[in-house]
Specification:
Length: 188
C-alpha cells in the first residue's frame, strides 16, 4: 500500500538483511575492509563482534558478494553442534564428499579436509570458513576449529576462519582454556 503512495518499487522494511541497503558507516567500512583483507591475504582467524542489530550479518553478506573468484567459502549458520557435526557442515558447504563409514570420526573428516585444503592451495584457491552466531560454539568445537588452523604450508595458513557473533563471543574467547585460539586472531 505505502509502496505505491511513496513511489517505491519494493517494500522498504524487511526483516532479512539486504546488502544492497548497507550503509557503510566508518565502523562498517572498517569491518568490511578487515574481512576483505582477511579473505584475500591473511590466515588464521578474524573476529567480528557487535550487539544484536548492529549490522554484522549485513556486513558479512556484503563480503560474500565481493568474494574473489579464487575463494571457496563455507558459511556455518548453526554452530550448536558437536565437533564432528561442525566438520561435516564444513564439508557439506565446500561440497566435499564424505564417504560412507566416515561417520563421526573426527580424524577421518580432518584427513579429508586436509587433503581438500592442500589440493585447493595447489590450485591457487583460498578456503574460508565463516561462522555466524559464533558465541554459541562450544569450547570443544572452538578447539577443533583452532586445530584446523594448524594446517599450513611453510609460508601461509591453508584455512581462514571468520567468527561472527555477539559480545559474548569476546567473553568466550577470553577463557583461559581458549587462550591458544585467542592468540591466533589476527583481526578484531
Amino acid at each position: 500500500m505505502y509502496e505505491q503512495f511513496f513511489g517505491l518499487t519494493e517494500k522498504p522494511f524487511a526483516i532479512t538483511p539486504d546488502p544492497r541497503y548497507l550503509f557503510l558507516s566508518e565502523r562498517h567500512s572498517e569491518a568490511l575492509a578487515h574481512l576483505t583483507y582477511g579473505v584475500q591475504e591473511a590466515g588464521g582467524f578474524i573476529q567480528l563482534t557487535g550487539e544484536v542489530g548492529t549490522g554484522k550479518t549485513m556486513t558479512v553478506r556484503s563480503l560474500l558478494q565481493q568474494l574473489p573468484a579464487n575463494c571457496d567459502m563455507a558459511v556455518i549458520l548453526n554452530p550448536r553442534v558437536t565437533p564432528a557435526e561442525f566438520l561435516l557442515a564444513i564439508c557439506d558447504e565446500l561440497q566435499l564428499y564424505v564417504p560412507e563409514g566416515t561417520g563421526q570420526s573426527v580424524k577421518a573428516i580432518v584427513d579429508l579436509l586436509t587433503q581438500f585444503l592442500i589440493d585447493a592451495h595447489s590450485r591457487g584457491r583460498r578456503v574460508v570458513v565463516m561462522v555466524d552466531e559464533a558465541q554459541n560454539l562450544s569450547p570443544d568445537v572452538l578447539e577443533q576449529v583452532r586445530l584446523l588452523t594448524n594446517l599450513e604450508t611453510s609460508t601461509q595458513k591453508l584455512l581462514q576462519i571468520i567468527l561472527v557473533g555477539q559480545p559474548e563471543l569476546r567473553e568466550l574467547l577470553e577463557r583461559n582454556d581458549l587462550r591458544q585460539l585467542a592468540q591466533r586472531i589476527t583481526g578484531r
